[in-house]
Amino acid sequence: MNTIIKTIDRFNKVLGVVLALLIMVMSAVIFYQVFSRFILKDSLRWSEELARYIMVWSVFIGSALAIRKRELISVDAIKELMSDRAKAILNVVVYLICIAFLAVLVNYGFVLVGNIIGQTSPAMNISMAWAYSAIPVGSILMIINCVAVIMEVILKLKGGNEQ
Predict the structure, then answer these.
(1) How many percent of the chain have pLDDT more than 70?
(2) DSSP letter string over the chain?
């Protein structure tokens, strides 16, 4: 299990770099759009659309990374009243529910991508499948990270180090 967790963590480092690059490109495109509009008095037709698509991809990739780092927002009021072992078991149950929801999202995401594959975006004239594929791909990345968290919790439970 440790090998799988380490492999997922190495993959997440690559995802972190991809996320940083996406945010840098998005920022540069938005900056150039503002510069172009207000200084050059000429607007880029495609920049707002590209920035929107990059933002969607960034949210899904960032959510996957946040799951692994356990940095998603949660209400911990009930967990504070539980023992360490019960907290760990509750964490596993919560992540299993998340996996079930994400599996549904993967399924319907692929259906959606299949339905809109022939549509093109208005400004960039690319297939809308590129934008909408963030849903199933991001959900798969989140499932992988949920599995890593579950494995980590189970390893800590077996080792006696409850979470």
Answers:
(1) 98
(2) -HHHHHHHHHHHHHHHHHHHHHHHHHHHHHHHHHHHHHTSS---SSHHHHHHHHHHHHHHHHHHHHHHHT-S----TTGGGS-HHHHHHHHHHHHHHHHHHHHHHHHHHHHHHHHHTT-B-TTT--BHHHHHTHHHHHHHHHHHHHHHHHHHHHHHHHTT---
3-state secondary structure of 122: coil
pLDDT digit string, tens, across residues 95-154: 999 999 999 999 999 999 999 999 999 999 999 999 999 999 999 999 999 999 999 999
Q: What pTM does this model have?
A: 0.91
Whether the Cβ atoms of residue 25 and residue 54 lie closer than 8 Å to each other: yes
Query: Structure tokens of 162?
Result: 């409850």
